[in-house]
């Protein structure tokens, strides 16, 4: 059974950094695209970044130059390095999986983790 588990969230000051991890199991990880999404209170879930099995990536404009997605297929894990964090980055962050193709549309992803809270505040 496909399972995704996020970790690494927490409280950080503006300008700080966090690294999120998404540990996957139960499927052929290397052929799946993994996306990171976030949802703030009262807002819709939005795509943050996505990485294909071969390593190609895409990012939302709001995080380009600040966030970096990467994956380790040997460890079945995807990472999201978040630098220069802003209060508007505060949200629950989710990772999600879909076969092969990458985009930032949440409805296209069929499998989701439980989420990890990121709070950026002084």
Structure description:
The protein is mainly beta and 122 residues long. 0% of the residues lie in helices and 50% in strands. The chain is built from no helices and eleven strands. The protein has strands at 3-7, 10-12, 18-25, 32-39, 46-51, 57-59, 67-72, 77-82, 91-99, 111-112, 116-120. Strands 2, 4, 5, 6, 9, 10 and 11 form a seven-stranded mixed β-sheet that branches. β4 (32-39) and β5 form a beta hairpin. It is globular and about 40 Å long. The N and C termini lie far apart (40 Å). The model has no long low-confidence stretch (mean pLDDT 97).
Radius of gyration: 13 Å
CA(first)-CA(last) distance? 40 Å
3D shape: globular
Could you describe the largest sheet, including whether it forms a barrel?
A: 7 strands, mixed
Percentage of helical residues?
A: under 10%
Which oligomeric form is depicted? single chain
Order of helices and strands: EEEEEEEEEEE
Q: What is the tally of beta strands? A: 11
Structural classification: mainly beta
Number of helical runs? 0
Overall average pLDDT: 97
> Beta-strand level of the residues, as a percent range?
over 45%
- Which residues form runs of ≥5 with pLDDT under 50? none
């Amino acid at each position: 059974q496909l399972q995704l588990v996020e970790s690494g969230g927490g409280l950080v000051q503006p300008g700080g950094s966090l690294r999120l991890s998404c540990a996957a199991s139960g499927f052929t990880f290397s052929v799946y695209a993994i996306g990171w999404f976030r949802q703030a209170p009262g807002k819709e879930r939005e795509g943050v970044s996505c990485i294909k099995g071969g390593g190609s990536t895409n990012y939302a404009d709001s995080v380009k130059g600040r966030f970096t997605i990467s994956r380790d297929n040997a460890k079945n894990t995807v990472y999201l390095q978040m630098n220069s964090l802003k209060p508007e980055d505060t949200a629950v962050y989710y990772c999600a999986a879909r076969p092969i193709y990458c985009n930032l549309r949440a409805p296209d992803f069929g499998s989701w983790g439980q989420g990890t809270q990121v709070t950026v505040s002084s």
